[in-house]
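Dear colleague,

Thank you for sharing your sequence with our group. We've completed the structure prediction you requested, and as agreed, I am returning the results in plain text so they can be pasted directly into your records. Please verify that the sequence below matches your submission; if there's any discrepancy, let me know and we will rerun it promptly.
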Amino acid sequence: MNDPLVIAGKSYHSRLLVGTGKYKDFAETREAIDASGAEIVTVAIRRTNIGQNPGEPNLLDVLPPEKFTILPNTAGCYTAHDAVRTLRLARELLDGHALVKLEVLGDPKSLFPNMPETLKAAETLVKDGFDVMVYCADDPIQAKMLEEIGCVAVMPLASLIGSGMGILNPWNLRLIIDNAKVPVLVDAGVGTASDAAIAMELGCDGVLMNTAIAAAGRPVLMASAMKKAVEAGREAFLAGRMPRKFYSADPSSPTQGLIGS
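Please find the predicted structure tokens below.
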């Protein structure tokens, strides 16, 4: 814990957050999450049973809250009203749990965030005592507005949800990171391990993903790869990369004392 991720006052060793959807069954879900090393797992309240449907398989039997921090999210919500109502239900189901992931979508095709509704929902939820991590556009101004509302983390997309296109606008991410006083985590668009490493090298505090692991040919192996990528990217960021030198070379070996010189 020499370099913990701190969200809402709680420290986490892992900077990789993972989703729980799209796996073939709960057993694969648990195996992949164990391989990822993630401590925070996000759950779509509208799509996954965590107790609201008695008699159906309950995800919490596989991912007990005593071991994992459950992060209920509002996937499938297109208005602030629906998002707020969904997270209030989640708080009841999880015995007053306050940490939540807010996402209010603009349309079902792109799943791009509806930022006016996101801002409205965030304000309501913060006033209602929630610790809000929020999925948002990679817009530095609106990311700052969410922070000023009181969100505990901002989560700009790298590219569209489930697209696997990687980080399309690293410059906007850097602007958000450089101006933020709360953790910044890439959410959406990661496709493979190098995307996660790049996000961390840019200075992101963490990465959240689901499809990149669940839709891989071998999800458990990809989860392991993502764990290593996030760790390597974080170490590279802390180490500080060498400066780029265009149009010049610098030998890696000493040039003094060469034979024959």
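Summary note from our side: Residues 219-239 form the longest helix (21 residues).

Kind regards,
the structure core
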